């Protein structure tokens, strides 16, 4: 071993045995070295009996998979590079030409867009249903329905659906798809904390780990969790074929975030409810949408099924305020920054044109702004909202 470049690569360093730290080590790999040809042939990446290649997992990603499965009350977990990739992976793993997928009209928009573009091109039919009506879902099931998405609450508009009733409508359907019907929940809002997806009847729980599990607004990742090993294998083998691996550094960020997820969820829940109740009393506000607020759609179901609520609230302004006035309100905020995503340390907001993103009727006429409440002092956030509301009056 003469050349310095060879010596630098084949260095004698071994990680210290007996070194115990609070955080797990971060392992990064494309290549994983096998000691012998026999070992190379024997290790089975499909069943995680050993390490074979970075794309198929490292000690760091296996650790995160176990913790996310625990958080969700599930058994098996697959990590993917974003929350949207988790939604897409479920569709790719389960659907084939001739199948139908049902998605709530108020679902996370890119879930619908993937179905309208890629899935449609692959011969899969999308049917949108009203998440607040189990009867509407029941009427849209057919013998071709293979996948039913649930989301609680609706994206942007935050209606909380009756998950057990929606699941019951699916299970009661008389002539199911010959391969069965799979119920998948986008559980990003509940995060494994507000309710247990599997106890409420989901077969698959998907999360954008980008949101609460990370909590830092600095990493993108998603997860697909199941209790069924057969379903896990469908998802996981597809994952390996499409190459949706995640990096050790990103997994480390989510592992760090998980240590404080319960505390952050509770603190942001409390602050969000304080601001939701205060906003309800403001003259400019027509309605506050938040599942824990009485009168918000699905509030009674939320109370029955959930022990907490996330950091999202939406405000519908009185219709006398023009969109320009609503935009001025958003531009006048100082602590709340304009931006997408949520569950990070910084409070965010964004205006949405709801009729443009849903096909079913929307009862409100005024503009809507969705807020993500961060970890700032609630009194400062309230003062910021107050000065921005005052700016609306000059319309
Ligand atoms: C953010 C979000 C996603 C997608 O997560 P990304 O990591 O941004 O791709 C999916 N579903 C819901 C409900 C979300 O809020």
Give a structural overview.
The longest helix has 20 residues, at 261-280. This protein folds into two domains: 37-258, Aspartate Aminotransferase, domain 2 (3-Layer(aba) Sandwich), CATH 3.40.640.10; 261-390, Aspartate Aminotransferase, domain 1, CATH 3.90.1150.10. The protein has helices at 4-9, 37-42, 59-72, 83-94, 109-121, 134-140, 163-171, 229-242, 248-258, 261-280, 299-305, 323-332, 354-357, 378-391; strands at 76-80, 100-104, 125-129, 145-151, 182-186, 204-208, 222-226, 285-289, 312-317, 337-338, 348-352, 368-372. It is built from 14 helices and twelve strands. It is α/β, with parallel strands linked by helices and 395 residues long. Bound molecules: pyridoxal-5'-phosphate.
Q: How many helical stretches?
A: 14
The largest sheet, given as strand count, sense and whether it forms a barrel, is: 7 strands, mixed
Distance between the termini: 77 Å
**Computed CA radius of gyration, to the nearest angstrom:** 23 Å
User: What's the shape?
Assistant: globular
Number of self-contained structural domains: 2
CATH architectural name of the largest domain: 3-Layer(aba) Sandwich
Bound molecules: pyridoxal-5'-phosphate
Q: Which strand-content bin applies to the residues?
A: 15-25%
Average residue-wise pLDDT = 95
Structural class: alpha/beta
Instruction: Please write the CATH class name of the largest domain.
Output: Alpha Beta
> How many E-type strands?
12
CATH superfamily of the largest domain: Type I PLP-dependent aspartate aminotransferase-like (Major domain)
Estimate percent helicity. Answer: 25-40%
Which regions contain 5 or more consecutive residues with pLDDT less than 50?
none
